[in-house]
């Protein structure tokens, strides 16, 4: 299927690119960092803190939402900038909150993932 500029998926991606940031860590570097940190939640917090600091450097806001994987102090402690002062809300349903209203179609679930009954 050919996607057009008015396609909801492309519109969603376009909006997300303006406000998102990505910190990519290749597998070798990830293993090296884990050897030093020895705590996966702290390693995840480091990545989240980098993204948070990058976004807050480009955008002025007082509230940030991220996925929940550990204590919020991990992210605040790993932050080197404005991330230390922002109100941080962690949730385990972040994809549902962000993507559901923006993309009005169904996603194909990953193998082994079952739809929750409501």
What does this structure look like?
With 118 residues, the chain is mostly helical. Helix content is 49%, strand content 8%. It has 5 helices and 2 strands. It has helices at residues 8-19, 27-37, 40-58, 72-78, 94-102, and strands at residues 63-67, 87-91. The protein has a two-stranded parallel sheet. Helix 3 (40-58) packs across helix 4. The longest helix has 19 residues, at 40-58.
Count of beta strands: 2
Order of strands in the sheet with most strands: 1-2
CATH homologous superfamily designation: Ribonuclease H-like superfamily/Ribonuclease H
Global shape: globular
What count of structural domains? 1
What radius of gyration results from the CA coordinates?
A: 17 Å
Q: SS-based structural class?
A: mainly alpha
CATH class: Alpha Beta
Supply the CATH architecture: 2-Layer Sandwich
Provide the helix percentage.
Answer: 40-55%
The main β sheet shows up as:
2 strands, parallel
In sequence order, what are the helices and strands, one letter per element? HHHEHEH
| Count, helices | 5
Topology:
Elements: H1 8-19, H2 27-37, H3 40-58, E1 63-67, H4 72-78, E2 87-91, H5 94-102
Helix pairs in contact: 3-4
